Hints:
The protein is of the alpha/beta class. It has 17 helices and 22 strands. The protein has helices at 13-20, 34-41, 57-62, 81-86, 99-115, 117-125, 151-160, 176-182, 189-195, 215-220, 238-246, 287-307, 328-343, 365-380, 388-394, 465-475, 504-514; strands spanning 5-7, 26-28, 46-49, 68-71, 90-92, 143-147, 166-170, 184-186, 198-201, 226-229, 252-255, 276-278, 348-357, 398-404, 412-420, 423-432, 435-441, 444-449, 453-460, 480-488, 491-498, 519-523. A seven-stranded parallel sheet has the order 8-7-6-9-10-11-12, with helices on both faces. The chain has a six-stranded mixed sheet with strand order 14-13-15-16-17-18, with helices on one face. Helix 5 crosses helix 7 (151-160).
Amino acid sequence: MTSKILVSDPLSDEGIEILKNSGFPVDVKPGLSEDELCAIIGDYDCLIIRSGTKVTPKVIEAGKNLKVIGRAGVGVDNIDVPCATDKGILVMNTPSANILSAAEHSCAMLLAMARNIPFAHESMHKGEWKRSKYTGVELNGKVLGIIGVGRVGGEVAKRMKAFNMTMIGYDPFLPKEVADSLGVRLTTLEEVITTADFMTIHTPLLPDTRNMISLPQFKMMKPNARLANVARGGIVNEDDLYTALKEKIIAGAAFDVWCDEPLNDDEKKLLELDNLVTTPHLGASTVEAQERVAVEIAEHAVMYLKDGIVSNAINAPRGKLDAETEPYMPLMDRMGNLVQQMVGNHPLEKLELIYCGGLAGKQTKLLTVSAVIGYLKKVIGTANVINALPVAKAKGIEIAETNNDTAKDYANVVEIKFTAQGKTRSIRGTVIGGQPRLVGVDQFSFDIPMSGDMMYLSYKDEPGVIGIVGNTLGTAGINVAQMTVGRDGGRALMFLTVDQNIPEEIVDRVAKDVGTDDIKFIDLVE
Length: 526
């Protein structure tokens, strides 16, 4: 039976042409309401959308034949991905098609700020001629601070180098060698904020980056500092941005992204300022980028429908993996997440995955990618099976896979060895009864469920420590769900699962009571 494709948002002609040339029937019906979409979606195997269509659980339930949802763009906020995954529907996006457009728009915003172009333009259209009022500054010789020297930030660096700017950057996950190749000197966030004449933001919006730039940071900046944000709304506190610009704490800002889009009534006060350059989220709005996202999503959707090739996927549909390896996907994601939190704000140099026992010799590529995705969750926010390995490579991370036919104590074990700051450590995991389990760290062996909120601490193996930890957490109202201890050569490693987040001050109190500095709260993002 021939697959049918529905395009429910405007898509470039190039993308439509690829779909129609695939041999599959294609219908283009933009502007459908939820009820209208539900009424027809049952006839289609593939749904191609942009940001307009909302793929709700109701739509997914109605899509009885739906095999794949393709999003021409990066964000999938308008798709209920967990619901689609439960139904075995592949969700694809186009993670890299917008990089150059976003980088060029960032450069344009920097130049617009430096030369007051929007304000001079508006004045000219009023019939005015006020040359002195709009005197700008040169980029030549100035310090450019790049917050997040990733794929977009790196492309900005390449382009701004031509303006003879001194470039410094903050990116705790980027190896120095990669930054050096871009002409960017890595340093602390504080140095970027205090020394840069121009700053540009290229980090994902994460709990750690939300309100990263607020009034305390603005007050640390030079009075002549100018800040551009073409990344995500929410990284900069908008109320504090208003204060910093209104009171001339900094010279100017240029923003393309906002907490609410379109702007809410409170945000609109920013538009009254004469030192803020604004655009309505145009970072990816170029003819070329729109063509790339359309062509890319069309090509990958057709590959999946014709040959079952999974690419650009942000989920793994159930039933598409080997029955023995499928249960290990959540384990790998969580193990990668644990690696990142153990490494902290230090660049990861190498990630070696060793598949032991029955997993040896299996198709483990997706498992490896899942571990990399788990690592990247707190680094770039989101990653998928198509961009995880390229992103890791761009960050200088060496990925390796090896097999071992034997697995001590378990039928299957995955060991991850990871190297950071020249030091190699390891963690081991398995799946028992469908549940991911952590069964070892370095030389220590134990067994504990791997989910939710956890804490580990290494300490001198002596009586009373378990009681001290339990008492300190209990006094703070933290309930311990499970606890395990591994022992080796006079040292011990304790892992706990708890019912809630452990505040930093409580972690510090446990460390002081036990007498250890090797302790960490772990939040395994689900």
